[in-house]
Amino acid sequence: MEYYHSEICPIEIVKTEKLNITFQRHNHVEHYVISIVEAGHVEVRYDKGDTRTYAPGEVFCVKPLQTHAVRMERDAVMVSVCIGRQLFAEYAYDMLAHMVWEMTARAGIPTLSQTGWIKILRNLEGSAGEQDTGTEPAFEKIMKLLAVFPERELSLEQMAEELHMSKYHFLRKFRERAGLPPHRFCLQCRIRKAQKRLRAKHSIIELALEMGFYDQSHFDHCFKSIVGISPKAYIAAKKIISGTGADGAGR
Predict the structure, then answer these.
(1) Which of these, 30, 89, 142, 198, has the minimum number of CB atoms within 10 Å of its CB?
(2) Of 44, 54, 36, 15, whose CA–CA distance to 116 is shortest?
(3) Residue 61: CB partners within 8 Å, gap ≥ 6?
(4) CB count in 10 Å sphere of residue 75
């Protein structure tokens, strides 16, 4: 796997190939993920049992908090572009499309044309601005707390009490909103936060303990189950791309 990060904005490119791998049911809290299948076939299982298999040249998009699972065989190649949802508020879709296109070009991973990216982002732009008026503010506060500080030890009872619910009612409501049970949601947030902080000079064991894992072995196991590779392999695969071509231009 190869990971490319922008040094100035929340855009990430992930190229997955030569891996017989299944990414278990998960979601992305603050990112839209646009994936292009370059070779082989990729199976995606969405909520409610909806399963689709994508062939070379096909594109699929996953919205924030949309739960899904992905299965790839060794001959499959997939490029995923993860775009922070706040960028849709900061840039017009044509500028954002140019940023994504330029970043993929700098990474040496040609995907879609600028026109192709504009078409996809234009379709996503409306949903990026949608507001979920059916979610209680207090519930949103709990989810944000877990996303920002996933290493904190919050029990199911504590979270339920904060919302004045029984723990069973809270568990059901949380799964409805987040698509995952609280412990799984928190675990993936801990791993995502660890991903951002992993550096070549960073002690893996120190980060593991800081993120609330028992030891490095526990951290390695959880990291690989969500990311697909070990923390050490992730550090080796991570690359920073300077600049995006945005030139500070917003809406």
Answers:
(1) 89
(2) 36
(3) 32, 33, 34, 35, 120, 123, 124
(4) 11
Nearest to 36 by CA among 22, 55, 20: 55
CA atoms lying within 13 Å on the CB side of residue 69: 13
CA angle 100, 105, 107 (to 5 degrees): 95
Pairing assessment for the beta strands 59-62 and 31-39 based on DSSP bridges: antiparallel
The two tokens of residue 209 are 């303990």
- The closest alpha carbon to 102, from 111, 91, 92, belongs to 111
Nearest CA to 84 among 34, 145, 122, 118?
A: 34
Please enumerate in sequence order all residues whose Cβ is within 8 A of that of 114, keeping only pairs 6 or more positions apart, or say none. 97, 98, 101
pTM for this entry: 0.85
Using a 10 angstrom Cβ sphere, with 0-12 exposed, 13-18 middle and 19 or more buried, the burial of residue 57 is: exposed
pLDDT in tens, 6-51: 877 889 999 999 888 889 899 998 899 999 999 999 999 998 779 9
**85, 64 contact by CB (below 8 A):** yes
Of 109, 157, 102, which Cα lies nearest the Cα of 2?
109
pLDDT band at 142 (very low <50, low <70, confident <90, very high): confident
Residue with tokens 């231009």: 249
Paired tokens of 176: 């409805």
Q: Identify the residue whose tokens are 């919050």.
A: 154
